[in-house]
Amino acid sequence: MVFDSIDDRGHEQVSYFTDPETGLKAIVAIHDTALGPSLGGTRFYDYETEDDALEDVLRLSEAMTYKAAAADLPLGGGKAVIVGNPEELKTEDLLEAYGRAVDHLGGRYITSVDVNTGVEDMEIVRRETDYAVGTSDGLGNPSPITAHGVFSGIQACADHVYGTESVEGLEVVVQGLGKVGQALAEELADNGAEVTVSDIDEDHVAAFADEHDVDTVAPENVYEEPCDVFAPCAVGGVVNDDTIPQLECDIVAGAANNVLAERRHAEALREEGIVYAPDYVINAGGLITVAKEYLGGTREGAFDEAAAIGDRLSEMIDRAERQDTTVLAAAEEYAEERIENAESVDETAVPAE
Ligand code: NAD
Predict the structure, then answer these.
(1) Is the shortest distance between the CB of 182 and ligand 1 below 6 Å?
(2) Is residue 173's pLDDT more than 60?
(3) Whether residues 118 and 245 fall in one domain
(4) Half-sphere exposure of 249 toward its Cβ, with a 13 Å CA cutoff?
(5) What CATH number does the domain containing 91 carry?
């Protein structure tokens, strides 16, 4: 059963680690290292069953392979899960034990933050291994860099649909005014776009609208709000059978992970004549930031690389049009070509300084 699950998705290695003294139970999945060492965050989550944890880590690590390849990074895809309730289990001792587990993989897997693990946790993990990024001595908060990448992706989509990269006068609805949504709304407004913002936190929306030249829309009306670009920056699954018929936009391009409830919704958007920028392509700024931290580079360099997301997305949109397929399928093909054509690389990371 376990071998079947691993074979199905073509993983290279799945490692289980336990440490009875601290209660650590971790699974590290290395999906593909053709382009370089695998990189991906550690999710700390109270899964109902161990099968659920395995399924999650296999799915997430495979997604990281595509994300890194589609971002032109010299990295492969990996991910880790620590099984259990972080409120009860997360201790310095457990995180140190986890750091030793990561170190044991000798650089084939580099870890970072994810759901229920943060910068402080990575600093503890770093005591035991060099193969951890996303610490406070890294390149800082990735969210504005993610937003900058989404901005460049929106420009690429606008160029394709309206024949201009300029966002001046472009009507954009930003769903979710969190770390990324807020930075995106600001960058769009600063560049002359007509921005409408929405969040379930009404006080936050009101305070933001007081300080910026933006309109607001109630969260329940966000999908039917007429606009050029709908930018989902809150939660996953918001593009689904219920919302697609409501959408009054030409482009869906935002930071949220797993925007499509199901893969078939990429085709459904295409049938509606809506250009969809695949989430993992357009939101790669966060990954680019931690990759730069690991591979060596500056925050400015990360901003520059995030700005190149638009060019890559343009290439994928053109490819999709030529092949009469979805941009999602074109993005996957782009990533797979990079992996297939990879020169032989050292799959083991060199410890960061
Ligand atoms: P965040 O938690 O800072 O912000 C999310 C915001 O969405 C919050 O303000 C929340 O109130 C709001 N929200 C939640 N549900 C909502 C709903 N139904 N309608 C409207 N608003 C709602 O998160 P973030 O870091 O800004 O990330 C946003 C999305 O982008 C997430 O899906 C995240 O996985 C993805 N992402 C983030 C980064 C990054 O660098 N932070 C990188 C890649 C992908």
Answers:
(1) no
(2) yes
(3) no
(4) 29
(5) 3.40.50.10860
| Cβ proximity of 63 and 70 under 8 Å | no
Active site residue 79: yes
User: What would the two tokens of residue 11 be?
Assistant: 């993983």
Q: Ligand 1 test: best mutation among 177, 184, 208, 235, most atoms within 8 Å of CB?
A: 235
Q: What are phi and psi of 166, to 5 degrees?
A: -65, 135
222: left (phi over 0), alpha (psi -120 to 50) or beta: alpha
Residue 134 falls inside a structural domain: no
Work out whether strand 194-198 and strand 215-216 pair parallel, antiparallel, or are unpaired.
parallel
Report strand pairing: 109-112 vs 251-252.
unpaired
Q: How much distance in Å is there from the Cα of 186 to the middle of ligand 1?
A: 15
**What is the rounded distance in angstroms from the CA atom of residue 41 to the CA atom of residue 193?**
34
Is 345 within a domain?
A: no
Separation of 177 CA from ligand 1 center, angstroms?
7
State how far the Cα of 28 lies from the Cα of 61, in Å rounded to an integer: 9
For ligand 1, is residue 180 a contact (CB within 6 Å)?
yes
Q: Is residue 190 part of a domain?
A: yes
Domain of residue 238: give its range: 143-287+292-336
Please report, for residues 122, 131, 165, the alpha-carbon distance to residue 106 in angstroms, rounded to integers and kept in the order given.
17, 8, 44
Q: Is 49 helix (H, G, I), strand (E, B) or coil?
A: coil
Q: For the chain, what is the domain count?
A: 2
How large is the average pLDDT for residues 161-189? Answer: 97
pLDDT interval class at 255 (50, 70, 90): very high
Q: Which residue has the higher pLDDT, 2 or 98?
A: 98
* Residue found by looking up tokens 């989404």 in the block: 150
pTM: 0.93
CATH code (residue 322):
3.40.50.720
**Same domain as 189, residue 323:** yes
Question: 300 and 271, same structural domain?
Answer: yes
Does ligand 1 lie within 6 Å of residue 284's CB atom? no
- Is residue 107 included in any domain, yes or no? yes
